[in-house]
Design goal:
The chain is built from one helix and 15 strands. With 212 residues, it is mostly beta strands.
């Protein structure tokens, strides 16, 4: 290879690398302003909010027990303490959830992130924490060793293309088809069997919603 070709080649590698490092999932998106009214908390119906949720120094902490009651007396669903992003339900467009999550060692089996809604499905995306590993539903393993550390989560739902992308710490971990129109984002802890731990907790901060 001639020296000039080598230099061109190195420049090209450099540009590709810079592009890779500088690409952020929020590029091209516009932030949607949120107020506290957009953070609806769903918790066991017979408990006070402060028995399952706290919000201190910007950190929202949500916890639930495997034998807790559902969020509504007549509901047959499993126990949950979850933030449901409200007031921004959608059926079209390109939407993105961003937040920093933290799951303490000991919490296992819980669903920590969801896109609710879908055709013939109750969800279009589920991320579960098992023994420190994050799974897409009960299937694909998308990250390991995430106990006791903050990790950045970006979920893009492109309703026009019918796709969902999941980024963890800025790296694309999953691209999948959606299940028809999802309509809202959730995060927290939802006790979906099998193999849930008795105590389940996740913490969230800097939750943002973006739109394209
Ligand atoms: C969780 O904590 C237990 C007890 O301290 C330890 O044995 C285990 O390795 C930890 N698990 C993970 C995935 O860090
Ligand atoms: C649940 O636990 C059982 C027994 O430890 C194990 O065989 C099974 O694979 C677990 N299921 C999941 C989804 O982790």
């Amino acid at each position: 290879m001639r020296p000039s070709h080598l230099i061109l080649c190195l420049i090209l590698v450099y540009i590709i690398e810079i592009d890779r490092i500088c690409t952020d999932p929020i590029d091209g998106f516009t932030i949607v302003p949120l107020t506290e009214s957009n953070f609806e908390i769903q918790k066991p119906y017979d408990k006070l909010l402060e028995e399952r949720y706290s919000f201190t120094d910007g950190v929202r902490r949500l916890w639930v027990y495997a034998d807790d009651k559902p969020h509504e007396p007549d509901s047959k669903t499993m126990p949950r303490t979850e933030i449901r992003i409200s007031g921004l339900d959608y059926s079209s467009g390109v939407w993105q959830f961003e937040g920093y999550g933290f799951v303490p060692n000991g919490t296992s089996g819980a669903i920590i992130v969801q896109i609710h809604g879908g055709m013939g499905h109750s969800t279009t995306l589920i991320l579960r924490m098992y023994e420190g590993d994050v799974r897409y539903y009960l299937r694909d393993l998308i990250a390991t060793n995430l106990y006791d550390k903050w990790f950045r989560v970006n979920v893009i739902h492109d309703r026009n293309q019918g796709t969902v992308e999941v980024y963890l710490d800025g790296t694309l971990k999953l691209v999948t088809q959606d299940h028809g129109p999802g309509d809202l984002y959730k995060c927290g802890v939802y006790a979906a069997p099998p193999n849930v731990s008795y105590y389940m907790e996740s913490r969230w901060k800097d939750i943002k919603i973006y739109k394209k």
